[in-house]
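Progress note, sequence design subtask.
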């Protein structure tokens, strides 16, 4: 049996990642930096396929009790849930660390 976990992105996480790219590429007018930043975030998330529980639980409720974990990549945070029964890591949000994280986590998912 493989020790590798499957990585899945929620629609919200995909939207968040697009937002990171668009902000850096279009607002800051730095498309090359935007590509590199998104690549660094995706590369770190890809590493969650091995021992995804090695990163800390998010310390606030109700997320802590649900098992939400967080990994930082530069100034960004990727929030994810290790789903043990399915050996799957569900990436639920990706956001800039300087924002009001609790407020962002309360927002309804993007459609």
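Output:
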């Amino acid at each position: 049996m493989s020790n590798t976990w499957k990585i899945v992105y929620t629609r919200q996480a995909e939207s968040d990642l697009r937002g990171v790219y668009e902000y850096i590429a279009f607002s800051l007018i730095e498309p090359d930096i935007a590509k590199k930043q998104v690549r660094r975030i995706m590369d770190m998330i890809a590493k969650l396929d091995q021992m995804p529980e090695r990163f800390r639980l998010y310390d606030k409720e109700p997320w802590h009790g649900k098992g939400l974990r967080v990994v930082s990549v530069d100034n960004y945070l990727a929030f994810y849930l290790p789903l043990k029964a399915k050996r799957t890591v569900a990436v639920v949000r990706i956001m800039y660390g300087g924002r009001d994280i609790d407020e962002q986590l309360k927002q309804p998912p993007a459609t």
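The chain has four helices and four strands. Work on this subtask will continue into the next period as scheduled.
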